[in-house]
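In this section we walk through a basic example: taking a raw amino acid sequence and producing a predicted 3D structure, encoded as discrete structure tokens. The instruction is simple. Fold the sequence below.
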Amino acid sequence: MHLHDLTQFLSELKENNNRPWFLWNKPRYDILRSEFADVLAALIRELGKFDPAVGACNPKKAMFRFQRDTRFANDKTPYKTHFSAGIAPGDKRRPSAGAGPTYYFHIEANGTLLFGAGEYLPPAPRLKAIREHVVNDATGFAKMLKNKHLRETYGDLRHDEGKLQRPPKGFDPEHPLIDYLKLKSYFVWKEAPLDLNAPDKLVPQLAQGFKDAFALVTWLRSVPETHEEI
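The resulting token sequence is shown next.
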């Protein structure tokens, strides 16, 4: 993928985030989008080597829409200023679709690569099921947290998004894992600069990063399914 062209396009879009500019530059976007699909196809092949559950994913379905949903947003700019994708079994990469753990990454205009895996803000029934599994499989959860590759690449589970101030209802406030029971997301991620001059390194970098998060993905897949309405 032409990473210089991608970051240049995104940088210009940040300064001209409007429909006329985008339509004028859509041929550039179409080329970049096609190249991004090729990156995803190669990445999915690599992921399939250690996680067969995602080996048959459709690269085009893994790409998130470039158009922003502005219906309830104060910011009415129409387009995102990053390219992003989520890879999950059955191409269900959205929490509302019952995705379960997902591999996610995006590329920003400033050349930053963000990648991670897990469940980001899952629906309430799923979140409750995860918390219950933390309690019921405390030993397995603690073992997962100590996984060498997970910790070396990501550190601990991220607490950035909406950690509860109080214990969730129905859970023991004295539980030794109470800080994890307060989480609203069970997700790890990392930011790294893109090597714009070595686009061939992107897929191996992402594949290794996702492989390092596989312990978390595996544990989350062991959470019993819930059939409650979401």
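Looking at the output, two observations stand out. The chain has ten helices and four strands. Residues 3-221 form one domain. In the next section we compare this with other chains.
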